Structures are given as structure tokens and as C-alpha cells.
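hey m, so remember when u said the C-alpha cells were messed up on ur end? i reran from scratch. heres the input so u can diff it against urs
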Amino acid sequence: MNDIKLNKSCFLCTYQGDDRKSIFTLIERAKEHGFDAIEPYEIRDIWDDETGIETAKRAKEKLDEYGMKCSCLSRGINMLSHADPVKELKKAVDVAHAIGSPYLHHTMQLALTYKDLPLWQDVEPKFVEVSREVAYYAGEKGMECIYEDQGYLINTPERLNSIITKIGLPNVGVCLDVGNSLYYEIPAEEYAGKFAKLIKHVHVKDYIRKTTCPGRTQGWGRSIEGNYLYHCPIGHGVVDFEKIMTILIREGYNGYYSLEGCGMSDVNAGVKLCLDNLQYFFDRAKENVEG
């Protein structure tokens, strides 16, 4: 148990408008903030059709120089509308492999509104078909594909488990997102408990939750039950980090906790606050398990 520590990753969308900048600029910034790893998202210079792979390889060299890792690579895609989702996601596997990521985390359809929401039984076969082909390709490169609780469509333990079971490959697992589950009014600790043996990576963020309208709702999300959610610094919202981390540590999880946004306009101050609080909750959780 003593060898389990807080491994800190920066989901690079945390840097807001900077997430489209050079991967090297973002690595520098993450290093300055004290992260152990990065999680790239839509970074344009590693996604370029002609030069992206070579840029990703050079980014890995920079990470190696700093003693850092690429904890995961995330790719957003809507499988129901993209012309060739398999091709796009295989490209993501190639980029992830070049930058040294052990995992590709990808969306299937990020539905955060009821408008035109398809029936689950109509779309699950497509999600499984595409994901299986991509996961098989990733497996040939020694990588895993991981899937998270997400949106209104996939965001139940039953549906997430169904997809993983039907893909049926050994190199698939779960990315636990401790904030996304609130959109379906499910505590993240429920996911942590049910999927503990399959969790490979964790996205951390926090939300203020209101059952009544906060007034002007710009920036607020809505849960499946119509409650209001607002992104805030870790520890300032309703996510029970101590309980979640206690479950994960008890089950032997020693992967990365990837900060997905800091909930403050002052990103430097926000990141520091979030990392301080994350360490605080981790230390309390470790005491719970060891004591």
C-alpha cells in the first residue's frame, strides 16, 4: 500500500484556449504546475495529417526529458455522424502510440441534451462495432481502449458495462469520470465500486449542484432530472473525492488522476488549488485504507 501515490495528470483542455496551441508549449506549462503526466485532447500539431506522428514522437522525447509521461490520449468523436469513425479513431491510436500513451480514451456520442436523442437499442450495435475494430487495432500496438460514463446516452453503469462486455476484448477498460456521473444523478463512488477492477484512468473535476434555477444559466449544465451543475474547483462542489479515492486505493488503483479543468478563470491559481485539494483528499483516503 505504501507504494500507492497520487499520480497527477493534466487533461490539457484544462488550459482552456491554450488547448489548440503547440503540444510543446502545453508540456512546459504542465511541468511548471507540477504534473507528472499530460493527457492530450484536440491538439492541432499532433493531429496534422502529414506531420502529426513525427510531432507526437518529438513530444514523447520532451516528456522523457522532463521525466513525465503521457497518461492517456483522448479523442472526441460522434460515431453516428462521422463519415468514417474507424479510420479517425485508428489515427488516434497511431498518435497515442507515437506519444507513448498506454490508453486511447474516445467518445462515442457526447449527448448532453435530450434533443434528437436516439434510442439506445438502435445505436449500441454501432458503438460496439466501431469500438471493437478500434480496440483490436490498438491491441496490436500493445495499447488499451478505455470508455467513460458520459452524456445522457451512455451514462449509466448498465450501458457502460454492456458496451465493454459486447466488445469482448481483453484490452478494454473504464475511464472513471467523477463529474460526468452527476449528469445522470449517479454518485461517482457507485461507478468506482462497480468498475474498480476495470478502471485504468480517472478524470477529476467538481461541480456545484443546485436543485433550483440559479438565475441566468450561462455556463450551467443540466442533469437528467433537470438539476443545475456548474464546474468549480475540486473540493468546492458535491463530488466526494475522499470516498471515491478510498474505494480506488482499497482496490489497488495506482494510475493517474487527470485534472479536467480547474473551475476558475485564473487557471494558474485554479490548478494549484485543485492539486492541493486533490492531494489532501488522497492522503485522507490512504489513511482510511491503511488505518
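this time it looks ok to me. The two ends are 11 Å apart (CA to CA). if urs says something different then somethings off w ur setup not the seq
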